[in-house]
Amino acid sequence: DKEAAVEVFAPHKGLNQKPTPIKIDRISEHEVNIEITAQITDIEINKGEMYKAWTFNGEAPGPVVVVNQGDKINFTLKNMDPSIPHSMDMHAVHAAPSTDFANVMPDHTGTFSYPADNPGVFMYHCGTKPVLAHIANGMHGMIIVKPKDGYPTDSQVTREYALVQNEWYKYNNLEDFTNGVPKYVVFSAKALKNGDPNTNGAVGSLVDKPLLAKVGDRVRLYVDNVGPNEVSSFHVVGTVFDDVYIDGNPFNHMKGIQTLLLPASGGAVVEFTVTKEGSYPIVTHQFNHATKGAVAVLKVTKD
Amino acid sequence: DKEAAVEVFAPHKGLNQKPTPIKIDRISEHEVNIEITAQITDIEINKGEMYKAWTFNGEAPGPVVVVNQGDKINFTLKNMDPSIPHSMDMHAVHAAPSTDFANVMPDHTGTFSYPADNPGVFMYHCGTKPVLAHIANGMHGMIIVKPKDGYPTDSQVTREYALVQNEWYKYNNLEDFTNGVPKYVVFSAKALKNGDPNTNGAVGSLVDKPLLAKVGDRVRLYVDNVGPNEVSSFHVVGTVFDDVYIDGNPFNHMKGIQTLLLPASGGAVVEFTVTKEGSYPIVTHQFNHATKGAVAVLKVTKD
Amino acid sequence: DKEAAVEVFAPHKGLNQKPTPIKIDRISEHEVNIEITAQITDIEINKGEMYKAWTFNGEAPGPVVVVNQGDKINFTLKNMDPSIPHSMDMHAVHAAPSTDFANVMPDHTGTFSYPADNPGVFMYHCGTKPVLAHIANGMHGMIIVKPKDGYPTDSQVTREYALVQNEWYKYNNLEDFTNGVPKYVVFSAKALKNGDPNTNGAVGSLVDKPLLAKVGDRVRLYVDNVGPNEVSSFHVVGTVFDDVYIDGNPFNHMKGIQTLLLPASGGAVVEFTVTKEGSYPIVTHQFNHATKGAVAVLKVTKD
Ligand SMILES: [Cu+2]
Ligand SMILES: [Cu+2]
Ligand SMILES: [Cu+2]
Ligand SMILES: [Cu+2]
Ligand SMILES: [Cu+2]
Ligand SMILES: [Cu+2]
Ligand code: NA
Ligand code: NA
Ligand code: NA
Ligand code: NA
Ligand code: NA
Ligand code: NA
Ligand SMILES: [Zn+2]
Ligand SMILES: [Zn+2]
Ligand SMILES: [Zn+2]
Ligand SMILES: [Zn+2]
Ligand SMILES: [Zn+2]
Ligand SMILES: [Zn+2]
Ligand SMILES: [Zn+2]
Ligand SMILES: [Zn+2]
Ligand SMILES: [Zn+2]
After folding, report:
1. What CA–CA distance (Å, rounded) separates B229 from C288?
2. ipTM for the complex?
3. Residue A88 in contact with residue A101, Cβ under 8 Å?
4. What SS3 state is found at C130?
5. If you measure CA to CA, which chain A residue comes closest to C136?
6. Are B55 and B188 in contact (CB under 8 A)?
7. 3-state secondary structure of C175
8. Which residue of B has its CA nearest to A247?
9. Where does the pLDDT of residue B287 fall: very low under 50, low under 70, confident under 90, or very high at 90 and above?
10. Looking at residue B186, what is its pLDDT?
């Protein structure tokens, strides 16, 4: 078994595939083509510490995908990994997993089609066995399905970011993935539009280069905790979430939340106002995890 | 202490009591007699691996109990365990724990009476000290209290199952129960009616023999995470929960949920539609736990 | 580094500062002065086992703070700790953390001012780095912001308590705080008014001296799980929560809840009725944690 593992992953040794851009093309009012690439790419997960991640598009988490409720998604997965199959499981859609989330072999391309009929903030991830290894090695991300009728608070929002929480463990160590505790727990910002911050899940990256806001902003965060193993107690220091939509569905509305519990793979839209200049840490309030890196900063300036 | 434990549990050695059927008799419109037996029975928890479980009725989890909101429950506990007391704590009822959930001595029978006035999906379990040992050794199950006015989505549901998540640890090892990580995390299906699948909490049992549905079904799952220690991030691959009722109470209505966080002992009604033929894995998305066995399959066929 | 730690904490050796009372003075209809003292005080966390806690006012958790929605809080932190800075992060308020939750140096006093505009049950804690150490060593508590328009169930409540869940680890051991499992998980009752029970977070303290109620009481608990690391599956044996307000906000209303999942730092108002004489255990249903001390008792008498 150990030998087999060595054999399978030997082709990854020294491999560092250059990030391939995601392709998202709207081909009609309710239909969108998405192409994502599975590839092996070195990711900095802490200062000076690289992880030869299994990725979507050379990022971990992968790029954020934004579609509209009611869209048909025509999805293409290109697998550039020379040695093992990968696949795509999108939590946003109705699909038959055994065929629509099927494996794509090394150096092959698979195409799939399914409807995104539920609004919200969802996890996507590789669903190839052992799933835990594919997620823990970096094959996860967020897909946002914009609700047909929007959120009741849309008009108040003045700034928005997409934020993902994930864990890192010992390198490609299924035993540690299964029975260990996380080495790092981290946040990443994923660009909603050109020019937005776009980072990998790395200790300190959003402390050194904070997210930005202005005094008086109502900030919306699209958040998802992709795990693979831990829940998140998502909290922004110095404010209270005015409005929360669980899994990003407008129906699941809460108000005045200090800390939002996200299941493994769970998402949300959270909105809050920042009333003064300063630095607002974003954490999971499971402080062992914050200590392991799950701290981002929102820097609020006057103008 | 160790010696005492040896003495107390010596009578369990080699004991394997044949499952006793649960008795549920409705004696009037709003009153039901329930008889459950505490007994020591060998349970297969993984292929070829037996666990001399402390059980209700020779199953672990025990048989599902279904009553109506407003019922008076006359409850009888027969304790066939030759060496230690057991008891019954039903989360569904209003009761004085110190008397209504009292210990029943070995080879004795206790009778209790209490109202089931809250609709929902609840845990039941042995409440004898150390409670952690009695739950972890297998004394847990689900009681459904059907809401007086039903669920708003009752008429749409075409298929339903009862599903329980539980953990297994090192055999009867209180130190491992308290400080260890689960050896297995598993699902079981508990029969709602004659002919339904009815399994113990065992790795792979609901993969080898999947739950069944047809294309177009709206499936309702009654779910409960009986622990004893872990929370569950309950998810069905390939679909989204159209409607969720937290703890099975129609008031606690959510929509469009990808993954439902269940506290230790928490329950829910979740409903979803399956739109295509194929195999839909059911997991806790805490993937270390899925890796340890928490995977069931719903097989969807055309006709 | 180890040497530095020894140096910094040497002044704590043998130190046991007498609890200083909290000061809460309403100075106008919508403005309140609060003075809290950071100090080093020995706390009994299990029978005969003392912990030289970092505390607010010589208690761990600190005293409960109750204000009204819309209040301006003028906050004073006196730091009596001779060796390290402390600070105050209140989840209830809008504030710029970098200035309003700033460090107060040893033997210094800091004053801050912010609005408590969100109703609910919130955590407060020291936010000085490493935050995990300051929380795990005892610097946490609960602040209740009473909603302007009350709760819809106010008129039915006949008894109320404030209850906090926290964990204890190896003494001042950041490695154990970060990667260990809790040594103890405990509840404490914090006095809402003179004469109320007021305890530290200690194994068994609320079992030996239970909370009290009468048959027929509708009991309200203000609860908060201050962590630092674990979530709580909050449950009262023998009853069901009739009404729950997540984070204590009247908008976040649930009914018929058996067990409430609290994130690390999350709070709630839960209400239930006790219909019979007897002892009702209060637990986290993560039973490894209940086994480590997270059990309180509500004793219900006839008159
Ligand atoms: Cu993969
Ligand atoms: Cu998934
Ligand atoms: Cu028992
Ligand atoms: Cu229980
Ligand atoms: Cu401090
Ligand atoms: Cu905090
Ligand atoms: Na899904
Ligand atoms: Na944890
Ligand atoms: Na876990
Ligand atoms: Na109960
Ligand atoms: Na735990
Ligand atoms: Na806050
Ligand atoms: Zn759909
Ligand atoms: Zn905070
Ligand atoms: Zn709303
Ligand atoms: Zn009742
Ligand atoms: Zn999935
Ligand atoms: Zn509804
Ligand atoms: Zn505010
Ligand atoms: Zn119970
Ligand atoms: Zn309400």
Report:
1. 6
2. 0.96
3. yes
4. coil
5. A287
6. no
7. helix
8. B257
9. very high
10. 99
Taking the C-alpha atoms of A256, A258, A264 and A268 in order, what is their torsion angle to the nearest 10 degrees?
40
- Show the domains of chain C with their CATH numbers: 2-146 (2.60.40.420), 154-301 (2.60.40.420)
Which residues of A lie inside 8 Å of B (Cβ-Cβ)?
A: 89, 91-92, 94-101, 118-120, 122-123, 127, 130-132, 135-136, 174, 177-179, 227-231, 246-247, 249, 251-252, 261-267
B135 to chain A nearest CA, in Å? Answer: 22
Q: Which of C258, C261, C290 is facing B123, going by the closest CB pair? A: C258
Give the residue among B98, B81, B90 at the shortest CA–CA distance from B38: B81
Q: Considering CB atoms only, which of A97, A246, A247 is closest to B281?
A: A97
Q: What is the 3-state secondary structure (H, E, C) of C90-113?
A: ECCCCCCHHHHCCCECCCCEEEEE
Q: How many CB pairs under 8 A join A and B?
A: 128
Model pLDDT for residues B54-90, shown as the tens digit of each residue = 999 999 999 999 999 999 999 999 999 999 999 999 9
Q: Are C92 and C120 in contact (CB under 8 A)?
A: yes
Contact flag C122-A258 (C-beta cutoff 8 Å):
yes
The pLDDT of residue B2 is: 54
Model confidence over A13-35: pLDDT tens digits? Answer: 999 999 999 999 999 999 999 99
Nearest-angstrom CA–CA distance, A18 and B78: 67
Tell how far the Cα of B94 is from the centroid of ligand 16, in angstroms: 5
Per the listing, tokens 């609290």 go with: C262
Contact B262, B121 (CB under 8 A): no
Which residue does chain B place closest to C185, by CA atoms? B178
For residue B141, what are the contacts with CB-CB under 8 A and spacing of at least 6?
A: B56, B59, B61, B62, B63, B64, B65, B123, B124, B125, B164, B190, B226
Q: C265: CA distance to ligand 6 center in Å?
A: 7
C-chain CB neighbours of B177 within 8 Å are 287-288, 291
> φ, ψ for residue A269 (rounded to 5)?
-105, 125
Q: Is the Cβ pair C228, A286 closer than 8 Å?
A: yes
Burial class (CB in 10 A: 0-12, 13-18, 19+), B6: exposed
3-state secondary structure of B287: helix
Write down the mean pLDDT value for chain A: 97
On the question of pLDDT at A222 being above 70, the answer is yes
Look at residue A203 and tell me whether its pLDDT is greater than 60. Answer: yes
Q: Which residues of B touch C (CB under 8 A)?
A: 89, 91-92, 94-101, 118-120, 122-123, 127, 130-132, 135-136, 174, 177-179, 227-231, 246-247, 249, 251-252, 261-267
Tokens of C111: 């004053």
Chain A residues within 8 Å of chain C (Cβ atoms): 181, 231, 233-235, 237-240, 254-261, 273, 275-281, 284-292, 300
Does residue C4 carry a pLDDT above 90? no
pLDDT grade, residue A5 (50/70/90)? low
B158 sits in the region (left: phi over 0; alpha: psi -120 to 50; else beta) called: alpha
Whole-number Å distance, alpha carbon B207 to ligand 4 midpoint, is 29
Contact between residue C123 and residue C226 where contact means Cβ atoms under 8 Å apart: yes
Minimum CA–CA partner of A181 in chain C: C179
**Rg, C-alpha atoms of chain C:** 19
B228 has pLDDT over 70: yes
Note whether B261 contacts C261, CB cutoff 8 Å.
yes
Q: What is the pLDDT of residues A80-133, one digit of tens each?
A: 999 999 999 999 999 999 999 999 999 999 999 999 999 999 999 999 999 999
What is each CA distance from A92 to A68, A89, B21, B238, in whole angstroms? 11, 9, 42, 9
> Which strand (E) or helix (H) includes residue B4?
helix B2-9
Q: What is the pLDDT of residue A67?
A: 98
